[in-house]
Each structure stands twice: as C-alpha cells, then as structure tokens.
C-alpha cells in the first residue's frame, strides 16, 4: 500500500505549530516567532521523500532545526535540536550535497559527485546499506513494529490538524541518581544502561556493577546494535530496543 505523502506546505505548518509549543519551555524561549527556512527534502532508500528539514533563524541568527516526516506512517516530528543541523555539519566538512538521505535515527547520508558520505564525512557504500535495510524490513517483527507505529503516527498527525495548538506550560521532570555513562556502542544501549543502572541502585541490585562496559555490552548484543565502522557505528533499529531491554532484564532475573 502506498504511503500517504506530506506536502511541504503541510510539513511547514506542523513545524510552525511545534515551534510554538516548544517555545513555551524556558530552554527554547528564543524559538518564539522564529522563521523557518525553506524545507530541505530528505529521501529514503527508494528515493522517495522521508523527511523535511527546517532550519530556524531569528534576526539572522541560527537557532536550531526541526525535522518533519514526509509520510504519515511516521511520527510528525522526527527530530528537533538547538545544535547544528545535519546540513550545516555537511557543509563544514566541505560536502555540498546534491541529495540528502534520511534513514531514521539521525542517520543522514549525503550524495555529492556520485559519492555517498555519512554525517561525519566518511565515504560509504550506500548500495550495501540499502541492501541491509531491505533485508531488515522483511523481518516479521519489524513489520509488526512499523504497523503499530503507523497507527500511533496517524493519531499524532490528526492532533496537528485544525487550529494552532496551544499549551500553558511544558512540565519538565528530572529523575535524580541516574548514572552518567559515556557513549559506548550506541545511543540506545548507553541510555538503556543508564536507566537499568538507576534501578540497580534502587532495589533491583542483580544487575552488574559495571554499567559502563558489561551492561552496555549486554544491551547492545541483545538489541542487535550494529556497526559499519568507520562508516556507521552504534546503529540500533528502534523496534529492537524494547526487546533488547526485556532480554537483558530476563538475563538478570527480572522478567518472566
């Protein structure tokens, strides 16, 4: 079944509404009334649009970026940050992309003069990456995850319809005592180890005391975190994260 595409105009409207919501937060207050750039169209392995990247500016100063899905089977807002946009990073590396690919999970690939570059400037074998993704998409668990995501995404897209969304406040909550770990083998296993490390110190002490290496290794292995070093390191498919956490919890005696 063909995916329902999002027009650039609709994507820009969603970005504006999201910018309005986020600007209520003190950390993003400068986003209020910021201007959005023209969308940078990002593509998938089938060469159809997957996302639109908007850079934010006010009075000529760069403020951050927002990435909106180009299809309604994915969540409307895919990324937002006050940091440098992927395009800015590419230009700093001397890459002037003819085409930008967004494969999810901050995986950006840039095409220039017949070559493909990863976000950090490495030349990659894009044909091999596309083939790997095609194989993953054949997995039944992956298909189930994507079907669930499509239903959730539809609900979120509906919430952006109609009048401008408003909110009186964005409540920020903090959990103290979470161990601060250095990035190792991927964002997903590292952050999951921080969460399990917290619970290890709060009544569930069966987990290893070596959160930084042993626990992250356990999680990365269980999540199937993969690398194409030096091209892409620490990539984890989203649908494998919860399975990996459950598997590690079971290993340490906390999951039936």
Task: Describe this structure in a few short sentences.
The protein is of the alpha+beta class. The protein has helices at residues 8-22, 86-92, 126-136, 140-159, 187-200, 211-223, 241-251; strands spanning 35-36, 40-43, 49-58, 61-69, 77-81, 99-102, 108-112, 115-118, 226-228, 232-235. Helix 5 (187-200) packs across helix 6 (211-223).
Walk me through this protein's architecture.
The protein is of the alpha+beta class. The chain is 36% helix and 20% strand. It is built from seven helices and ten strands. The chain has helices at residues 8-22, 86-92, 126-136, 140-159, 187-200, 211-223, 241-251; strands at 35-36, 40-43, 49-58, 61-69, 77-81, 99-102, 108-112, 115-118, 226-228, 232-235. The strands form two sheets. Strands 1, 2, 3, 4, 5, 6, 7 and 8 form an eight-stranded mixed beta sheet that branches. It has a two-stranded antiparallel ribbon with strand order 9-10. A hairpin with a 7-residue loop joins strand 4 (61-69) and strand 5. Helix 5 packs across helix 6 and helix 6 (211-223) crosses helix 7 (241-251). The radius of gyration is 20 Å and the shape is globular. 27% of the residues are buried.
